[in-house]
Each structure stands twice: as structure tokens, then as C-alpha cells.
Amino acid sequence: MIKNYMKSKVIYLSTASTILEAAAIITKHHIGLLPVVDDQKRLCGVVSLQDLLSLELPAILTLIDDFDFLNDFGAIETTRPTFREVTRPITEIMEPPTYIFEDSGLLFAYSVMLKHNLYDLPVVSKDMLLVGIVSRVDIAVKVLSNWDQIREIPQ
Amino acid sequence: MIPAILSSIVFLATLILIFTEKLNRVIASTIGAVIMVILGLFFNFYDESQALASVDFNTAGLLLGMMVIVAILEPTGFFQYLAISVSKQSKGKPFRLLVLLGAITTVISMFLDNVTTVVLIAPVTILICEILGLSPLPYLMAEALLSDTGGIATLIGDPPNIIIGSAAGFTFIDFLTHSLPIIAVVWFVALLILRLLFTKELSAKPSNLETLQDLNPKNALNDPKSAKKVIIVISIAILFFFLEELLAIKPSLVALGAAAVILVWVRPPIQETLKRVHWDVLIFFIALFILIGGLEASGVMGLLAKQIALAGNLPPILFSLILLWGVAILSALVDNVPITIALIPIIQGLGGTGIPIEPLWWALVFGAGLGGNGTIIGSTANIVVASVSEKTGTPITPKLWNRYGLPVMLGTLLVASILYVVFYYLVY
Fold first, then answer.
1. Could you list the residue range(s) of the whole structural domain that residue A115 is in?
2. How many structural domains does chain B have?
3. pTM given for the model
4. C-alpha–C-alpha distance, residues B102 and B98, integer Å
5. Number of domains in chain A
6. On chain A, which terminus has fewer CB atoms closer than 10 Å, C or N?
7. How big is the A-B interface in CB pairs under 8 Å?
């Protein structure tokens, strides 16, 4: 079960936080995904690195199929989001969470990650309380460590 | 009298649905056309074969042919290649960038669909402006306004021209001799007005010029082979447009023929290519022709023409100018295609009363074309540019459009009116 291999000390954010606070936590702890919880600690969203970094990227890129005629983004490289943008509540940019329950299997958790192209997955209890977080590395380490018990079956 | 009243009600109700956007224009016009034919059958004024005959297949064929050609050219990256190449030529000087991007959009719009042109060029424009640290607003406005203006210069430049050309029997050469000279002057007027309106933005100092010089337009050209083939066939097609009278071939045959040749030569994935054809526009046009055909068959158009002719004791110059400005104002507020299709039988009716109608056709061309510049909803290209601009720091709002587009519309209309009177009433 996933609850035996997850990290139960989760760094998370409350719905009252701002975008700026999310960025500060991510830089401090070097993490890629921040779960967002309400005041009862129920999981209600996630913020990924991509959500934050997209505030720096020009929005027009979504309309341009390929931009390999460029080498760098010129003035865009040094444009920062405005104070007003980064002091918005995190709830404005967070995404609906993809999560698994604490009694899920390891390989099931991994396949959910693959399907949604995620590297970290919040783990919740039956009543949606955030109880942990699990990464691809956590799962891989556990699964691959079992491989040294694979033996040739005698004919 | 009953057919006339009923067909008018159907037509007006359809127009109201289209212009209030209560219903998608394609759905509204299709329903209107169907009701028109049913009433026609019931009250004996219009039947299926008449409805079919009222569709101008020369217009539909020309549009379809050009749309297929554009659909094949679109994914080659040719449009982006041109936009990046000319941007590099500007050396980052703002006004030069505006003129070059505006000019390339104009030239493409003279021969190909305006909407596709701006859909592909506007995003690249925004990216280049942001790289240079410039506001994209003046460049986007210039592209929309100048592409609409450029389209008026040729028979195949925009849909009203195709419709009018087909109804009045104007050839490709007629447009080059009657419209292009006036539009060439008007184009510079539009550019001048933009220069004055954007004085502040165009004196901004661009940064990161070396990034601009490092741009490699060739990388944007995904499929140079196909692009080359399409350009070769378009060039030959344009040659055939010139020979329309000599060879007695319709422009629709040239366009459809060119599309067929390109399909055989390039062999694009056909499903994907046909998906890029704007079938909604074609259906909309066909439905409008059927609706107007019903109005004609019920005698409404003849009645209107008679009324206008009675009031037509006005001097011809004044009458033409009223038509030009009236159509322009309507085209700024609503789609210019229904207006054009509706006015065609009226002008043809006026011809029967002895009024010289050739100048009236050209008044319709200039009014329908230039009027579209006035408001954000005046042309599809405007709407597209505005929606693309939502991805920038200064989205183009209706109010913002009025501040820059309206002066351009009024200035260009004024100059076009003067040239129109000189050319059509004093010289010819």
C-alpha cells in the first residue's frame, strides 16, 4: 500500500496563500508540486512549477506551433510578472488535484502518474484529508529494490 | 402582395438573428433559406430550382478554390517565413517594422484570404514585438487595417469583391485598373494616419536587436517544397485571371483548376486539408443567395429599386456618394457580405431604369471594403486580431479599436470618395 512508502511530512499551502508565497516555499524546499488544502486540511488543489513559470512565459506561445526560428526570447527573458500578478491568491492559478487514496497499490499510483504526466502525487485519506505525498522516485526505489529477489526458476 | 410581405419578414428576421448574434450566422441563414423556399412553394413565388439558380456558383467556386489553396499553403509555414524575414529587414526600427509587416500582410491579402493571413502573421508579430520590448498594439492594428484595405484592390482580395465582380461582370483586370490605383493612394493615407496616431509607440526604443538579427526565417518554413509548388501554381493562376476575357473562362474555373493542380502536385493529407477549408463561410454565402433570390422572386427587390429610382432624381454623383458612405457605415456595424448580396439585385434593378450603374458597383466595392475598418466587428480579420491580442499586455478592446480604427476608416473613406468622384465622374 502506498501509505507505507509515501512521505507523510508534506509541505503544503493553504487556500489563503498568495502566488508569491507559493514561489517562496518552492524555492526554499526545492520541490516541484505544492498541494493546496482548505482549513480542515482537505486537499482542494495543486500548484506545479509549470503553473508558476507560465506567468513568466509570453501567453502568445500557445498560439505558435513551433518557434525554432528563435535562439532566445530577447526582452521576454528579463520581463518579470507585476506585483499585482504575484500577489493574487493561489486559488486563481491552482489546478484541480490529481490524487490517490492511501490504500492504493504502488503500481496503480505509478500508472496514474504516467497517465497525467506527473512526478509527484498527493495521497489522501477516504475523507480527502491530505496525508502524504509520493514521488516517482519513492515508487521506483521500492519496486526496483525487490528485483534482487528475482531468481531463476529451476526447470 | 402576400409573397412580398412574407419574404421580407423571413429576410428581416434572419438578418436580425445574424446581426444580434442571437444565433450563429450560418445556422440562422440556413434556417432562413429553408423557410424562404417552403413559403415560396406554398405561396407559389419561389421553388427549389429557382433557389438553386439564385446561388452564384462563380462566387462559391472561386471562394472554395482559393480556400483549398490556402489550406495547403497554411501548414508549410510560408506566412510565418515572410513575416519573420521582413521583420529582420526592419533592423528593429519601429516604423519600418510597421510598414514592412503591414505591406507583407497587404500583398498576401490581395491574393489570399485575409483571415488566414492575419491568423498566421499576428502571433509571430506579437512574439517579435515582445522580444524587442515593444508594444504589439500598433503593429496588430496596422496588419488588420492594411490587410482589409489591400483586399479591396483585387477581384479575389475579399468576398464582397468576388460577389460584386461576378454580378457586374468585372474582370481581374477591371479591378486592377479601377480599384487598385485608388486603393494604392488610400493605403498610404491609412499608413500616414497610423503613423500619426501611434507617434508615441513608434518612437519607443527597441531592445535586444541582436536577437532579431539572429532570427532564422528558414526554420519557420517547415515544408519549403510544398510552399514552392503552391506559389508557382498561384502565380500561374493569377496569369490566367488576367486572361479571363481572352480565353472566356470564369475566375471560379481558374481557382478550382489551380486547387486541383496543387492537390495533385503536393498530395497533402486530404482530410486535414479539407478541415482547414471554411465550409461555414461557403454555407453562409449559399444560404444568403437563396434568401435574396426569394426576395427577388417575390418582387420585393424590383419594388425597392423602383422606389430608389423615384427618389433618384438626385445628381448621380451625390447618389453614388450616399451609396458609398451608407454601405461603409453599415459595413462597420454589421457583416458586409449580406449587405453586398442584398444590394446586388437592387443595383441591377436600377440599371433597368436607365441610371448608369457602373459607378454604383465601384461605390459598393469601396464602401463595403473600407467600412469594415471602422469597428472591431467590421471584419473577420479585425475580430481575429483582437482575439489574438488577448494574449498580450494590451488586449484590443472595442473602445481601443474605435480610437485607432475609426479615424483610419473616416480618413480613407474621405480620400477614396474624392478620388472616386474624380475618376468615375470627371475622368471616365
1. 2-149
2. 1
3. 0.86
4. 6
5. 1
6. C
7. 63
